[in-house]
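Appendix C. Worked example: DUF305 domain-containing protein
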Amino acid sequence: MSYTRFGLMILTSTVVMFILMYLNTYAWEHLFFSETRVYMAILMGASMAVIMLSYMLGMYPNRAVNVAIYIAALIVFAVSLWLVRSQVTVSGESYMRAMIPHHSIAVMTSERAQIRDPRVRKLADEIIEAQRREIAEMRYLIGEVDKGDFVQTIHEDPPARVGTVRDALNNTLISALDPAPLSEAQAEEALEAAPRCRFNRSPESDPILWAAGERGPGVMQLNGVIIPLEAAAGGDADTSWRAEGLTTELRPLGEEADWRSDSELIFALDQGLTVGYRGFWSCAAPAG
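Step 2, the predicted output written as structure tokens:
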């Protein structure tokens, strides 16, 4: 067997291993290129070169070439391991592109594991919601970074203080607030007209915004409270809703829309917190 064929075999195996690392993602829209996975595939390819050559030394009699392969494989292994662990080449955007499929794995295992204990099921459901929220937020931030929209400051909660349990229960950390999923039945409690439009962070989860038409009143859930929203002029946004203390803007992605997302929702509190998500905006046809 020729050394060229051996090299092609290792190269093919490395590419296949890189592809296989994406098979445990939950949904197609969670597939993003990951530098870290490239380095891991190369690391595994280098390991495979050493293992396969060691088993097939009888088929490759050139001692000098074999030694060169071992040395090259060890160098590639060491460099790729350093790149994986140091993350020296990973920028903020690359970090998020790598974290989305990583989060997707957590969604898949948490949703499909055969869990009987209600405490573990509750924990798994909380993980699913957190991962889906963060995936939608990372999609939004990737778009912002791609456009060069960087911020210098973000909202920060005041430092912790000494107090009682009652103080802790009455204390709301603004930076931790996010719109929570809201079922259609819950939305109907706060909307006079039937909710027809909705924004989903992912197709599998309940929407975080319902509206009675594209420019009608809306509703969202925040910190366990269902909040009615009034439609308002949106400025740069296609549609905007407002309640006392908060503004929510919907922005269709236009040419940027793809199978991963078609709109972005920006949630802003007057106290300074702003969070964006990329997801899906859809409206059902009115009944009758």
